Amino acid sequence: LKIIAETKIKSAHDLNTLKELKVKFLGKKGELTSVLRGMGGLSPEERPQVGALANEIRNRLESLISSKTEELEEEKLEKQLREQTVDVTLPGLPLTVGAIHPLQAIWEQMEDIFIGMGFEVAEGPEVETDKYNFEMLNFLKEHPARDMQDSFYINPEILLRTHTSSVQPRTMLAKEGEVPVRIICPGKVYRRDSDDATHSHQFMQIEGLVVDRGVSMSELKGVLLTFIQKMFGKETEIRLRPSFFPFTEPSVEIDIYDPQKGWLEILGAGMVHPRVLEKSGYNPEHYTGFAFGTGIERIAMLKYGIDDIRHFYNNDLRFLRQFQSE
Ligand code: FA5
């Protein structure tokens, strides 16, 4: 038995065969176990001798099996390593690299330009109250923009902000009458406009607000001309047209000149209305201010020559990949 078992164990080629052999010889119903069971039939003198022999065989076979198991496991590992070597000279798979979204690129560029002119970046909520979106900005109760037709209302007092101008009173109140106020606020705004080539129901604006002693219209023009020329080139011309906003007086619309398309409106601006200053805790006899608001999509469309605002929101990779190097 010992000799047969030893030969079989030594010549086992894989771990499964070895496991089977262990059961066959040493298991509960194994051959050695049945020898031990048969000891009842032996004489008392023979028993210790046969018992000792059987134990010796068991120990011998167990150590043989465990060293063979180790040997086979090592062999298996080496085989795996040999077969799975990595050929580092093979060319790798190309990685697809994402691009910054054109609106994000313009947003960041605009922030950099205004930060360079001493502006700080402010924030405000997209879900806004009537108070900050309209009331504090001198909109009359019956102003058409307050109508359910134009704004997304959550309830009669709360709506999705229709412009970033809501950050004007928020900032002034937070400053508690201190000057200078010199902020820009980029962010999303929402209107019940029907989507077409130049309108989107959700778009982005950048608001600007400056309040201090002696702030003038010529400073407003200087700041916006600097911004536009940094964005579109030194030669770009602008034009100020009279306009109306309830929160600025006088109000202007600013156009830029595009050689192909002529004059294009890009932003609204004006001197902060005295009533708006007053409502937010600034005495209009001591302080003046200017504000402006522009659409990020419209700036991006002009800058990149994009003819349809919907391209920005369709997530068409053929469109987005064109901005890979931005
Ligand atoms: C305003 O929203 C004023 N709050 C701007 C302002 C700020 C005036 C501070 C004075 C002082 P207006 O509704 O014109 O104004 O919108 C400003 C800009 O947002 C427009 O010039 C345009 O660039 C962009 N815009 C307006 N509606 C849409 C739309 N549906 N889709 C995309 N861009 C739009």
Automatic annotation (TrEMBL):
Protein biosynthesis is among the record's keywords: yes
Reactions performed catalytically: tRNA(Phe) + L-phenylalanine + ATP = L-phenylalanyl-tRNA(Phe) + AMP + diphosphate + H(+)
CC terms in the record's Gene Ontology section: cytoplasm
EC number: 6.1.1.20
Entry-linked Gene3D superfamilies: Bira Bifunctional Protein, Domain 2
Annotated InterPro entries: aa-tRNA-synth_II (IPR006195), aa-tRNA-synth_II/BPL/LPL (IPR045864), Phe-tRNA-synth_IIc_asu (IPR004529), Phe-tRNA_ligase_II_N (IPR004188), Phe_tRNA_ligase_alpha1_bac (IPR022911), Phenylalanyl-tRNA_Synthase (IPR002319), tRNA-bd_arm (IPR010978)
One of the protein's GO biological processes: phenylalanyl-tRNA aminoacylation
Source species, domain of life: Bacteria
Alphabetical keyword list: Aminoacyl-tRNA synthetase, ATP-binding, Cytoplasm, Ligase, Magnesium, Metal-binding, Nucleotide-binding, Protein biosynthesis
Compartment annotation: Cytoplasm
Protease as UniProt keyword: no
Molecular function terms, GO-annotated: ATP binding; catalytic activity, acting on a protein; magnesium ion binding; phenylalanine-tRNA ligase activity; transferase activity; tRNA binding
Ligand binding (Mg(2+)): 249
Residue stretches making up the Aminoacyl-transfer RNA synthetases class-II family profile domain: 104-322
A Pfam family recorded for this sequence: tRNA-synt_2d
Cofactor(s) demanded: Mg(2+)
Cofactor note text: Binds 2 magnesium ions per tetramer.
NCBIfam families reported for this sequence: pheS
Quaternary organization: Tetramer of two alpha and two beta subunits.
PANTHER family noted in UniProt: PHENYLALANINE--TRNA LIGASE, MITOCHONDRIAL (PTHR11538:SF41), PHENYLALANYL-TRNA SYNTHETASE (PTHR11538)
Family of the protein in this entry: Belongs to the class-II aminoacyl-tRNA synthetase family. Phe-tRNA synthetase alpha subunit type 1 subfamily.
Protein name: Phenylalanine--tRNA ligase alpha subunit
Organism: Thermoflavimicrobium daqui
